[in-house]
Amino acid sequence: MELTPDSSVVFTIAGLAINKTIFNTWLIMALLTGASLIITRKLRPDVPPNRWRTTLEVIVQGIDGQIAEITRRHDRRLLYFTGTLFLFIVTSNLLMVVPGFDPPTASLSTTVALALSVLVAVPLFGIGSRGLAGYLRTYLEPSVIMLPFNIISEFSRGISLAIRLYGNIMSGAVIAAILLGIAPFFFPVVMDMLGLLTGIIQAYIFAILATVYISSATAPVKPDADEAAKDPS
């Protein structure tokens, strides 16, 4: 039994081994891109929406609504970023019910890459919102003594994101394989349903945590008490 799809090589290009993690990631990217292009190719006000366009609009509006509840505003940049993360992870996790498909999120390399993208996005969003000096000043809050602890906290967020997603998806796949070996005629349906539920929850948690981290970096700076007293307006 393989614990990660990294060890399965699908083919090689110029001596470079393409394993299941990379190949399945390309498949998901092609699936999401192709579906988006097909559904939105007639995106005009005079064309009535079909059921696929309606489904896509419901998904996008749902993600935008969740972001607005957390950040108290509608942020298109955050919608594009965390929405893409959510759709990639949830599609990867849901496709695990397809026989022979190993979700890329069961690989630590994928979850680390996703976590690194969040780690890079947090300062970029923060600098874009507060400016470089304003963002760096957040590491000194509430006092300069907290500088090393704030830096450690920043990196621990990324590590926890990667380990949480990888551990849940990998452990679910391992448990399913064990139970399928014990009772192959009873557990498949149960484990498929449990896998779908777990995959959706983990994608939701990852996207929500990414939104919270970015929201905290872009939140408006509260005025000091002294400055507020000087300027009551």
TrEMBL record:
Keywords: ATP synthesis, Cell membrane, CF(0), Hydrogen ion transport, Ion transport, Membrane, Transmembrane, Transmembrane helix, Transport
Functional note: Key component of the proton channel; it plays a direct role in the translocation of protons across the membrane.
Protein name: ATP synthase subunit a
InterPro entries tied to this protein: ATP_syn_F0_a_bact/chloroplast, ATP_synth_F0_asu, ATP_synth_F0_asu_AS, F0_ATP_A_sf
Organism: Hoeflea algicola
Transmembrane residue ranges: 78-101, 107-127, 165-187, 193-214
Membrane-related topology note: Multi-pass membrane protein
Family classification: Belongs to the ATPase A chain family.
Pfam hit, one: ATP-synt_A
Localization in the cell: Cell membrane; Membrane
Principal location: membrane
PROSITE patterns, per the entry: ATPASE_A (PS00449)
